[in-house]
């Protein structure tokens, strides 16, 4: 079995790099969103939490739609870069929500253990 020469691999890598640079990442839209995310100013704490959960849920739905469209290879499927970007956005949003939950739990525990 013959191995490709270094120059052939280099040309192939350069072509892939040029292709990646040429791709632009366009914003995605959910084709069938189960609900619309309201982006108004919440007036109370529960409204703020509900809005945060809605934003995280929306990011996860966008990532799911992008992944399914990319896997199916449909004509309007997003690029691999766009699919990976929406997946990472959803992951970061979820991790931030977990961090907020942990801080709230820590604050609650501090309040409970305070002497009166």
UniProtKB/TrEMBL annotation:
<dbReference type="GO" id="GO:0071973">
    <property type="term" value="P:bacterial-type flagellum-dependent cell motility"/>
</dbReference>
<keyword id="KW-0975">Bacterial flagellum</keyword>
<dbReference type="GO" id="GO:0005198">
    <property type="term" value="F:structural molecule activity"/>
</dbReference>
<dbReference type="GO" id="GO:0009425">
    <property type="term" value="C:bacterial-type flagellum basal body"/>
</dbReference>
<dbReference type="Pfam" id="PF02049">
    <property type="entry name" value="FliE"/>
</dbReference>
<dbReference type="InterPro" id="IPR001624">
    <property type="entry name" value="FliE"/>
</dbReference>
<comment type="similarity">
    <text>Belongs to the FliE family.</text>
</comment>
<protein>
    <recommendedName>
        <fullName>Flagellar hook-basal body complex protein FliE</fullName>
    </recommendedName>
</protein>
<dbReference type="GO" id="GO:0003774">
    <property type="term" value="F:cytoskeletal motor activity"/>
</dbReference>
